[in-house]
Specification:
Radius of gyration: 19 Å
CATH topology: Glycosyltransferase
Number of helices: 13
Number of domains: 1
CATH superfamily: Voltage-dependent anion channel
């Protein structure tokens, strides 16, 4: 039977929640080009086109997953109770929060329509995930950087939340995200160094290590409008993890394609945005070079990932039983 680019009806059952990682990646690239237009003089039309494309992908993925929920509810329930897949459900709320950021400057009403339900949903998923961890014995081998998505993802809430909620509410989400970033990073570092290595399917999630300090910087600046010592620490930590990942590039060259490849994109875009913010505030030429470098790297990576995604969709290797 001939495959279509998207999942056939008989493949909806295996449509993974990880597909929302595509929305996160596209959202990151969209915001990157929006800020590049604002701070570096890039053409604004790029961000506008990407905004439409990203929103369309979000709607398409949401429709397909809703169909899966309606037709295969036990499968979704099982996925929601899976020790690894449960972390990717927060990609739904993060996608909504990212879209809120995309629309915030020019279409604040649309931004609010994404931000409020996205924030409520992310609050629920954070509480549910931590409760799940407490109520079920977790194997150390189940831990991977995707654990950051439901918990540390709280730092994204303040980025678009200024003007939508009080400083106290935004600080609640920021504090929760930063606190659990430190805790979970310690757990993951222990696992990676002293126990079994990550399976190849989840190696791309190593890039997620870049995201918490990079997004944390953006959230901190949105709330307080200053680049102080704490902000500099967040930026330098993001830069450290970026350089570490670059130093380990050989680890990623021979990885077979999985949807988890989309984990490459969002953290790189977040680092590019953070670099542009630092340049905008300091006018340091080194930061300008870093910003342009990160934009180029993130663009090349997403082109490769999009190509590989479409190629494997055509071959019928997406939405299959794992």
């Amino acid at each position: 039977m001939q495959e279509t680019p998207m999942c056939e009806k008989n493949r909806i059952k295996f449509f993974p929640i990880m597909m929302y990682a595509i929305v996160m990646g596209m959202s990151g690239i969209t915001i990157m080009y929006q800020k590049a237009a604002l701070w570096l003089g890039f053409p604004s039309v790029i961000g506008m086109i990407l905004m439409v494309v990203t929103t369309t992908i979000f709607i398409a993925v949401s429709i397909l997953y809703c169909i899966k929920f309606l037709k295969y509810r036990p499968v979704v329930k099982k996925e929601f109770s899976h020790p690894i897949r449960i972390n990717f459900f927060a990609a739904v709320s993060i996608s909504m929060l990212m879209l809120a950021i995309i629309y915030k400057e020019h279409y604040p009403i649309i931004s609010a329509l994404f931000w409020y339900p996205g924030t409520v949903l992310h609050f629920y998923l954070t509480m549910y995930t931590i409760s799940f961890w407490i109520n079920h014995n977790q194997e150390l081998d189940h831990s991977n950087p995707a654990w950051f998505i439901p918990i540390v993802g709280n730092v994204i809430v303040p980025v678009a939340g200024v003007g939508f909620a009080s400083q106290g509410i935004l600080m609640y989400f920021f504090t929760s995200g930063i606190f659990f970033w430190i805790i979970l990073f310690a757990i993951l570092l222990n696992r990676i160094i002293f126990h079994h290595q990550l399976v190849s399917k989840f190696m791309p999630t190593m890039f997620i290590l870049i995201a918490p300090p990079a997004v944390g910087l953006l959230a901190y600046f949105k709330m307080f409008g200053v680049i102080d010592t704490f902000a500099m620490m967040l930026f330098n930590l993001a830069l450290f993890f970026t350089l570490l990942i670059a130093f380990m590039y050989k680890n990623f060259l021979k990885i077979k394609f999985f949807i988890s490849w989309w984990a490459f994109v969002f953290p790189l875009a977040a680092m590019a945005i953070s670099s542009m913010l630092m340049y905008h505030q300091s006018k340091d030429i080194t930061l300008y070079v870093l910003s342009c470098t990160m934009i180029c790297v993130a663009t090349i990576v997403i082109i490769i990932v999009i190509y590989q995604t479409l190629w494997h969709m055509q071959k019928g290797e997406i939405c299959i039983q794992d």
